[in-house]
Specification:
single chain; 349 residues; alpha/beta; Arginase, Chain A; binds manganese (II) ion
């Protein structure tokens, strides 16, 4: 292959300026331009395109992982069906959200809720089918959102294919609301839906959580040993007490089972790194902290069975590519450490 990792990318190259076709790629990124239930700031449906556009700026050389591009990365084109479903579902869901989910005696809102829930279910089936096909073809799958509702179908596909696994969930939010604002497939309900409906998820390990309601707190508590939460305030307290991040991160990795799906909501990071994400909250992680945690995870002998990156939302100002810039760098690290965990790349010492 006449590919020079030191050169500027060709104009017709793919994600990260790479030349791989889907057939050549070990990792296939599935873009899901979906944000039907966005309740605060919008724009997450534009995340995959913005990440793809920004990704040519990456330096393929990586200080942590040897040649992370060599196993091959490919991003699928966006599905026009998904775009169309998103448009219809978002229009319907926004009516319900505007009414605060109170739909009693309102036939129009009840119909809108049915539309939003039906299309959310259709999206889940689509993501599940696409992800399952990738896994059956021997690919590693990475889902690029979109809001945080999108990877539900991918969790199902991983459960079908891999059996029991754990979720490593980075987020400012617990995302364990029961049908938030009446919407079954709300972005704020994904982890409730996952833990209720997918028994193969043997454990959820949440990191960076700092905005949640009492019902969510109770739900996660009631999961008992099936959940472990590293709240942002606990991580901060450890930092203030002088604990080394490497110890804290090792404790997070230790809480995980052998197989791990990483579900990464960009708002788990400090909002200076994702200023346009839909529901930013002060606090959160640095990229270097995440990278170190991923290093420990990949080198622990655990298998990263797949990942998603969601809620990257570009600025309405097209000259401002910062959110996508951070998003694509995180995506590259997720891919690189996944390759290490799968024996496809070597970590540097
Ligand atoms: Mn989330």
């Amino acid at each position: 292959m006449g590919f020079d990792p030191n050169a500027a990318p060709d104009e017709d190259s793919g994600v990260f300026g790479l030349p791989h076709t889907e057939r050549e790629a070990s990792l296939v990124l599935l873009p899901v331009p979906w944000e039907a239930t966005t309740s605060y700031g919008g724009g997450a449906s534009k995340g995959p395109a913005a990440i793809l556009a920004a990704s040519g700026q990456i330096d393929l050389f990586d200080g942590d992982v040897v040649k992370p591009y060599e196993p091959g990365l490919f991003m699928r084109p966006e599905s026009r069906d998904v775009r169309a479903w998103n448009k219809t579902a978002k229009a319907a869901a926004q009516k319900v959200i505007k009414a605060g989910g109170r739909i009693e005696g309102r036939k129009d809102l009840q119909a809108a809720l049915r539309t939003a829930n039906d299309l959310g279910g259709r999206l889940n089936d689509w993501v599940r089918g696409e992800t399952r096909a990738l896994l059956d073809a021997g690919k590693i799958a990475g889902v690029v959102g979109g809001d945080h509702s999108v990877p539900y179908g991918a969790f199902q596909a991983a459960a079908d294919k891999e059996g029991s696994f754990g979720l490593l969930h980075f987020d400012a939010h617990s995302d364990t609301r029961v049908a938030y604002e009446g919407l079954t497939w709300s972005h704020a309900s994904i982890m409730y839906n996952a833990m209720e409906n997918i028994p193969q998820i043997s454990k959820i390990v949440q990191v960076g959580i700092r905005d949640f309601c009492e019902q969510e707190y109770e739900f996660v508590h009631a999961l008992g040993p099936r959940a472990r939460v590293f709240f942002d305030r606990d991580l901060a307290a450890r930092r203030f007490a002088g604990a080394a991040w490497t110890r804290t991160a090792a404790g997070i990795v230790d809480a995980l089972p052998q197989k791990v799906w990483i579900s990464f909501d960009i708002d788990g990071l400090d909002p200076k790194l994702c200023p346009h994400t839909g529901t930013p909250v002060p606090g959160g992680l640095e990229l270097a902290e995440v990278n170190h945690l991923l290093r420990l995870l990949a080198r622990s002998g655990r298998k990263i069975v797949g990942f998603d990156l969601v809620e990257v939302s570009p600025s309405p100002d097209r000259r401002d590519e910062w959110d996508a810039n951070v998003g694509m760098r995180l995506l590259y690290k997720l891919a690189a450490w996944t390759f290490v965990s799968r024996g496809l790349c070597k970590a540097r010492a």
